[in-house]
Amino acid sequence: MLTPQIRQTIHTLSKAKKSNRKIARLLNLSRNTVSMVLSHGIDIPVKARKGLNPDIDPILKETFTRCLGNVVRIKEVLMEEYEVEIAYSTLTRHVQNAELRKPRSRVGEYIFAPGEEMQHDTSPHRILIGGERVTAQCASLVLGFSRKIFVQYYPRFTRFEAKSFLKAAIEFMTGCCRRCVIDNTSVILCGGTGADAVIAPEMATFCRMYGFVFMAHRLLDPDRKGKCERPFYYVETNFLAGRTFKSYEDLNTCVKAWCLKVNGKEKRALGMTPDAAFIQEKPCLVPLPEVEPPIYEHCQRLVDCQAYVNLETHRYSMPEKFIGKTVDVYKYMETVKLFCKHQEIAVHPRLSGKRQKSVLQGHHTRCHKTLVNLAASQTEAVLRGQQDELLDQYIDALKRKVRGSGYRPLNRLLNLKRTYPAEAFLCALQKAQKYGLYDLNRLEEMIIKAAAGNFFNLEENVL
User: Fold this and answer.
1) Which phi and psi angles does 273 have, rounded to 5°?
2) Cα-only R_g, the chain
3) Cα(238)–Cα(77) distance, rounded to whole angstroms?
4) Which of 160, 157, 174, 193 is CA-nearest to residue 118?
């Protein structure tokens, strides 16, 4: 668009008897543009917009209230109920001109001194873990002054996960601020909201050990912790975009590396990187305690009849002698420890995701059925190792005649093979296969008759 100064210059040159071609060359414009300016005048022409029919104003106000201010839905209702078709841009402009919407109010900004405040919140994200789409809880903590961020993911977020995350975040920051702003979540609160919120006793004990206090913001005021709310969108659209993960351990390792990368990028609001701002904030943080207490959850479980302890839909093995006894279960972030009468019995890796079992070596002896099947397969392997097709065919037919694994008949057949001469054994086996005889007592009689006079002394008159 031409400025009023250029339009004035075109008219001045025209009054000085300059041709349109020369004016266009001097001002680097087209001759058509010069002609248009000379015909329209110095003032910029304003194109009159066609307004809406005044009769539709009451309908528009009623529809605006009914559709809760959604212009897209207003456009659809006007077309469906009143057969009035209005362009979306025209309808939006009319809503603004009619002042049906309240004008946006000016927003403020929270400014914090170094070490004054940190903000914590969680958000559900859909993630592809192990080839399956799951909903994981994204927990984040942001320092108010330096904007340094730490993020982790959990299958669920209870007070146990909250304490584990806060401990990991404080260790990542090498300290904590004196105040931690949260929403009115029941994970940390046990009652009340905002200024009247009551912190759960175990969470109050936890924050006292690290030297900070929780502060719940006013109800329905998420902007109070906006420094923590805003990065969730960035995590979802930047970190998760195009990434898949093998497990939660892999996910948390990747997101921690991503946090280190993001903390090294310059922020426009800071004019520096969060790591550079953190250098100023670090001396003001509450240092880590000399001795950090372990984060665990204790419960008692009864060892079931299959020698397992059930915890969070998962099963952890115990030695069979503890069946029917009550054991103490200590759940840590990465392990599950089982105790009986204050003695440690087993340490399992903690399971997550779908229902699974963890069986430690030596806890469960093999059942009788498994041992019998193993012995039958071993016996069959010995019998089939002689490269004798007749014996292999007889074994296949014998297994079809007996029930179960066939350990006893196969073992009896192996003993007959080892006891009697090979010629007599194969001769009797051939006759049995021909006539379909699979009674091993009859087979042994046939072997003895085949070996008569050669292997046994079968004379009737024996002194």
Assistant:
1) -85, 155
2) 42
3) 37
4) 174
